[in-house]
Design brief:
The protein is mainly α and about 150 residues long. It has six helices and no strands.
């Protein structure tokens, strides 16, 4: 998996990344993945002064430590960014996995996949196997070959 935070992405690369992400076990919907890639690609940083973001970051860092790895800065930022996403009452959300529907450990697993950190993803999988019990890409009818 390539590292989206290190290069400018074309739409073709974004589409290719999404299917690679899903085939690696990723659950988030395509729109959220695209927004995450843009967040990483643009080098955006969140306001580190917000207490809620600090709590989110400490929580994901704690889970990473329990699984035996240390998060990179962009992973912590992406986790806080995704955790801050909330549904808009004006929009309808089709079935799918959205950040606000995931617990902390599954969202951290998604962050590892989105940042191309397969080793940390595997560590999470070994340390928290219960979060992967319902992980299946075969449930996505829009995926070719599913």
């Amino acid at each position: 998996m390539f590292h989206p935070e290190r290069s400018r992405l074309s739409q073709e690369q974004i589409n290719s990344f999404y299917w690679e992400y899903v085939s690696s076990g990723g659950q988030l919907n395509e729109k959220t993945v695209n927004e995450s890639l843009l967040f990483l690609n643009n080098g955006r940083m969140l306001n580190s002064g917000l207490e809620k973001q600090k709590i989110c970051c400490r929580q994901c860092e704690r889970y990473a430590g329990l699984a035996g790895f240390t998060l990179r800065s962009e992973q912590t930022q992406l986790y806080a960014y995704l955790r801050s996403q909330m549904p808009s009452p004006k929009e309808e959300y089709p079935d799918g996995v959205y950040p606000w529907r995931l617990g902390d450990q599954p969202l951290l697993a998604e962050v590892c996949l989105l940042t191309g950190d397969g080793e940390s993803y595997q560590r999470l999988e070994r340390h928290f196997p219960h979060i992967f019990n319902n992980h299946s890409t075969d449930k996505d009818p829009s995926r070719p070959g599913a």
